[in-house]
Design a protein that fits this description.
Layout (H helix, E strand, L loop, with lengths): L10 H8 L3 H9 L6 H14 L5 H7 L5 E7 L7 H17 L3 E7 L5 H8 L5 E4 L7 H8 L4 E4 L11 E2 L3 H14 L5 E4 L6 H16 L9 E2 L5 H13 L4 E4 L2 H13 L9 E4 L4 H4 L6 E5 L1 H15 L13 E4 L6
Parallel strand pairs: 1-2, 1-3, 3-4, 4-5, 6-7, 6-8, 8-9, 9-10
Antiparallel strand pairs: 10-11
Length: 337
């Protein structure tokens, strides 16, 4: 031990300090087993005074726990998804660390479950967080069959018995933002989005359609362009959108919006004079663009923290009172004036 390094306190130290058995100390700390109230209070006071930190490895062996949580990311994740996953993962890691859990990252494609099965078969994790639920997810089916605690981030296509999920209010946000554009008098709004296989895409499309019903504006389905993931695809869609005389364009995320802005700039299309632009996901890319882009802001870090909390609850951890509300904000900027 280095000179000046503080020796870590152990259960043995507490037992010697108080003149009681290690078993009594362990029961008092865990809250399990018969221990008198006075003894428990005396042990807990000593724990605080000596700054006792439980050995996570020993604790995991004693409770048949690994204190690891698997975070599953889609293997087709791209630059489009980076801001979302970065914020969400930050919240998950922060909440897990507060309760002495570590996060193991794993990439899955929804079909080949080899890596996931290896994690669970070798008992490397206690539970799983599935990001961006897919329309048809063999991952969820496998976890349910194996009775492995898990939480899905993403709105399910339909209610599933026993499925615990959480998501941003994507449909409501899409409905409100689109409604604002319709209220401004726009009548030919185009929609640019990513993969149809992702439930978030479906939620945003539903919100877009809801707003048109609310304002009794006929929806032009020829102005909806999904599975648009590259600059070339966006560029081709823009040509059709401009030819059709669209007066507004709603993009499903900031990455697609950024590509759209480049395409419009190449064609010398003025925003918002010739066409108004809005995004269903906000980022600094859009805030500092000239003109700044109207968008939906979600607290995705909070989403990650809440997802982790739901899993910790399944694992028997005391996390009551820590859940935070998931809200969104429509940020009106110059691109829709």
């Amino acid at each position: 031990m280095e000179r000046g390094e503080k020796k870590q306190c152990t259960i043995d130290d507490i037992a010697r300090e108080l003149g009681i058995s290690k078993t009594t100390v362990s029961r008092a700390i865990s809250g399990k087993g018969r221990v008198g109230k006075a003894t428990r209070e005396k042990v807990l006071a000593c724990v605080e005074r000596l700054d006792y930190q439980p050995n996570v490895i020993a604790k995991s062996l004693a409770q048949s726990r690994t204190y690891n949580i698997a975070l599953l990311l889609p293997d087709d994740y791209s630059d489009i998804d980076f801001p979302f996953f970065k914020e969400c993962m930050s919240g998950i890691c922060e909440k897990a660390a507060q309760h002495n859990y570590d996060i193991l990252l794993s990439m899955v494609d929804g079909k080949d479950l080899t890596q996931l099965k290896r994690l669970t078969a070798n008992r490397k994790v206690d539970g799983v967080i599935v990001t961006r639920a897919l329309v048809n997810s063999s991952v969820r089916n496998y976890l349910k069959e194996e009775k492995i605690p898990f939480v899905a981030i993403g709105t399910p296509e339909e209610e599933e018995p026993g499925l615990i999920w959480i998501d941003n209010r994507n449909r409501e946000g899409s409905r409100e933002l689109t409604g604002i554009l319709l209220m401004k008098g726009l009548r030919h709004i185009a929609l640019l989005g990513g993969s149809r296989a992702h439930l978030v895409t479906k939620s945003r499309v539903q919100g877009f359609e809801d707003a048109h019903k609310d304002y009794r504006v006929k929806l032009d389905e020829t102005l909806q362009f999904l599975d648009v993931n590259s600059y070339a695809e966006v560029s081709a869609a823009v040509d059709k959108i401009l030819t059709a005389g669209a007066d507004g364009i709603v993009c499903m995320d900031d990455f697609i919006t950024n590509m759209l802005l480049g395409c419009l700039r190449e064609r010398d299309v003025q925003i918002p004079q010739e066409v108004k632009v809005a995004s269903l996901y906000d980022s600094s890319l859009l805030e500092y663009y000239i003109p700044a882009v109207t968008s939906l802001h979600f607290n995705t870090k909070t989403l990650g923290m809440n997802a982790c909390q739901l899993l910790l609850e399944q694992l028997g951890e005391d996390v009551k009172g820590e859940f935070m509300p998931l809200n969104y904000q429509v940020i009106l900027r110059e691109s829709t004036k």
